[in-house]
Amino acid sequence: MSAFFAIKAGDRSFMFTDGAGYTADGVIRSFGTKVTVAATVPFAATSLGNADLGERTRTFLSAQAEKFGVDNFVDVFMPSFLAELKETYQALPGNRHNNLMVAMVLWSETRGIQHLGFQTAPEQDRDDILPFALRDLGNTAMRGPEFPIERMSTVRRPLVGESQEQYIRHLGLEVMTFMRQRADVTQNRRGTADEPQFFVGGHIDLTTVDNAGARIERVHVWPDKIGERINPFATVETVVPFGNRAQRRAMRAA
Q1: Burial of 150 from C-beta contacts in 10 A (0-12 / 13-18 / 19+)
Q2: pTM of the model as a whole
């Protein structure tokens, strides 16, 4: 399971994604960027589910956003694309490993920042989420291992003199860490289903989308290793510095 957390701030969006790919047994096999951005229009997409299919889908959508422009991409291309995608999935035998959830961040002159998404499978206890339907994900969107909402009360308040962007970077790291530390008990090779595993790891990429376009930067690295399972409680990790020295000192003291 991958994870993302996206939040609007004025006329920008900040989207945080993790970077670990893993086997069915939860062993890390690769690290990579799980976001695709357009080169000339303000568009970014991330995906959860089948990694290879997700990457191909993101690349295709990015190319179409470039071709049509953001508004026509949403209004003209996406309805046709989702209708064809639905027909394709209905014509294939059911395979849960082909299921995807795609989240897109877009900026347009007429609508500003948008968080839009779609998925190919229904969701348990969510009748409002229809497969193959484009939907507004809201001002704040996240998907990944569910953690107790009470944990959000532990996130510190903004520091004096801290910019909105600096605080959102801190908030994104906290939320991704909450999801990283949430265990999922999955079926192990012995078939006893008693082996807790963790599925958010590698690193955190921050994708910023605004009227200037979409750009990705790495803002955090966890001490995960290829060939091992994710250990969210390892102590050595790397935070990429942001802000001036005094601001970073104040954050460390908080």
Answers
A1: exposed
A2: 0.88
